[in-house]
């Protein structure tokens, strides 16, 4: 699928297609579940447009870090800043995998 086709789909449909892609990559079940959860964090917490803005950003690293750095402190009450930084890194890595695989 090309990106414009993916953008017309619901989160569940995009997630399903990404799940198929990850299964075909022969990843472990735990890795697949983590990637599916983390990759769609921005969509779940902020919305579809924010998600696609980050995925399509020319400066993905900066855009994903900035978005998550803004979202996580509001969503994860009581999470120490060092944990937020680690969580941002993990989510960005999984989101980058989705971004690179967007031509499923």
**How do the helices and strands follow one another from N- to C-terminus?**
HHHHHHH
The parts where pLDDT drops under 50 for at least 5 residues are none
How large is the share of residues in beta strands?
A: under 5%
Mean pLDDT: 83
Structural category: mainly alpha
Please tally the β strands and state the result: 0
What is the helical fraction, as a range of percent?
over 70%
Name the shape in a single word.
globular
How would you portray this structure in words?
By secondary structure, the chain is mostly helical. Helices cover 76% and strands 0% of the residues. It is built from seven helices and no strands.
Map the helices and strands.
Layout: H1 3-7, H2 11-24, H3 29-39, H4 41-45, H5 48-55, H6 60-75, H7 81-100
Helix pairs in contact: 3-7, 5-6, 6-7
